Amino acid sequence: MAINTLKIREDFPILQKRIGGKPLVYFDNACMSLRPKQVLSAIQHYYEDLSACGGRSSHRLATQLTEEMERARKSVSAFFGAKRAEEIIFTKNTTEGINLVANSLALHKGDVVLTTDKEHNSNLLPWQFLAKRKGIVHEVVDSQKDNTFDIDRFERMMSKKVKLVAMVHTSNLDGTTIPAREICKIAHEHGALVLLDGAQSAPHKNVDVRKIDCDFYAFSGHKMCGPSGIGGLYGKKEMLEQLQPFLVGGETVTDTTYTTYELEEIPHRFEAGLQHYAGILGLGAAVEYLKKIGMANVEAQELLLNSAITQGVEQLQLIGPVDPKLRGGICNYLTGSIDPHALAIMLDQSASIMVRSGAHCVHSWFNKHHLKGSLRASVSFYNTVDEAKFFVEQINKIVKNLK
Amino acid sequence: MICIIALVVFGILGIFSATHRKLAWEALDCVIRKTTFRKCRTALDERLRSKISGKVIGKFPKTGAFIYKHFTVFSYAFTLLFIISLIYSGISMYNFAVYGNCNGPEEIPGFCIFDPAGGQTKVTSSETCKIPESGTLKTLDTINITRFPRLDRGSNHTVVFIGCYACPYTRQSYPELQKLMREDVNIVFAHFPTKGMTEYLSAYDYCLYEKDPELLWHFNDALFQEPVESLTNEQRILDIISSFGIDAHEIQECTTMNATQSRVQEQLAALQTLGVYGTPTVFVDGQPLVGPRPFRTYKSLLRKNGN
Predict the structure, then answer these.
(1) pTM beyond cutoff 0.90
(2) Distance between CA B264 and CA B79 in Å, rounded?
(3) Going from the N-terminus, what domains does chain A have, and what CATH number goes with each?
(4) A342 to chain B: nearest residue by CA?
(5) A19 contact B CB<8A
(6) Which residues of A touch B65 (CB under 8 A)?
(7) Shortest Cα distance from B49 to chain A (angstroms)?
(8) Each residue of B162-197: pLDDT tens digit?
(9) Judging by DSSP bridges, how do beta strands A317-318 and A330-334 pair with one another?
(10) Which tens digits make up the pLDDT trace of A206-235?
């Protein structure tokens, strides 16, 4: 069922605005999504109606907030197909979720952590730091020539020493998605846990953590129509119970003496201090909104847009496989002799088209390939085919004249 | 190169806006790094290049691309123009300080940013004072300056003040001449009657000066304070002269004498020979300045000539 994009766009106040006298064409969704008014209302609802502490005080405002927070947790857990609501821990973002696992999991000297060769710095640095601090071994599974995941190589690299497979589910570099289910199966056969960086998969496709059978799945609210500063970590209950919290304080314990403490149940033991309540309510509203749109519809619309861009853009080299079906909502281009930053600025200045340029926090991949950067257009379900065509027309015009 | 211009532009805008202040710091950093042959840390130059080209490329793709490709050349050209402009601005400031006119001692017509109304270069126009609007002044040695009233103090400096009692700019300038008279300079005064009905005052100048040189300066002080309308009333002139304690009718008789008329005609002819086209015209040690300049202009010229 095709979605009514024009109707959906009415939900996004920023899309009604003009930037520099021109309609906004927002193609930087892999970095930050736009927010519908339903999410904005939820945020406003907290500050206007419920400005209190959740999970602590007993007055009506606090209890109502706690109820709404837990309702949001339920929505989020249902969105990702989790078995229980308590398997969702609210974090700041994906980065914090990954760091939580990295610092809470019992990894020891010599334990191997496997990642792909195109990890966002958020899923690279935690392991590099652990390698320095604890002596774990960080190993990289190189991709195939077309930048897709090399399952055979991965299988060859698996051993009993591998304790964690921490991989980007959908790459922000080229939009390719790893065969997560297969990876989990292989990893589990070798006794390893699997942590997926879901920052780019959560907003763009149906993610069922139970079907995938991953142990942990980290995601960000700001990439899935939710507020900034809120995200989450899914963890299987039995896995979360084994983790040793690394951020502790208020709300993480039920009791303390001067020398002892008693940890709270999951997920609260991982949610130290006062939470981003407005963000949590906003995230709840965001997943409800996405559910209403339907993730299959989101995926279909993004494929439509990706196809239009892929077919239209000339003279630039695409990163990753040519088939749009394999790249979700991302079209990332190497710009040859033209500086990608310059091209991005020109698209903005001349046509109010917002795209991302640079290394997209995947510096390691660019360094490996001796490249300085690229120009990335990332679409979302609220973008239109007309916008995609306009982008194609503008970028072709600029590139043709600059080359 | 564009960073130099950016530094100045953002530096000025930064006085009023915090955003531009940050850009000015970036530009400064960029200039320092460029002068030491390093790459701009914040890529401000590249950003400016892309933004400027981007603004154009949407409407005029070829022009935008041309600007982008040749931005370095444009940057050098603009920086060069900027430096030339700075030099000219410096010269203009110097001219304004010394001559009271951005365009220098010569009366080149043109806008002066430091004197936007042109108040210091205005002279009487032909419409009001019936003299040519412009001309070329000759040097003082083309006329016999000793034939004019002179306040001689034995100084090495001489200021020749050519003015008209009835002209507004001479009247505006006269207080500056009074300040000059307190300096160590010789003063020569020449009445250039730009209004026909005040021509007769030249003869009074001559006669009063002949009677007592000091009287002329008192007479000038009085006439420049007098309303312009009164200057055509000869009885009022006689009353002023009487107030000096001398016989006004004796002076009046003097004005009608042939010798007086002859001298007045001689002076007028000399001024025309000199090419005076507007009042006030002041020669400071031979350097002509046309228009009501401030005292500091005269003073700086005197200082320049060794006062």
Answers:
(1) no
(2) 58
(3) 5-30+294-402 (3.90.1150.10), 40-291 (3.40.640.10)
(4) B50
(5) no
(6) 398, 401-402
(7) 8
(8) 999 988 889 988 998 889 888 889 999 999 887 668
(9) antiparallel
(10) 999 999 999 999 999 999 999 999 999 999
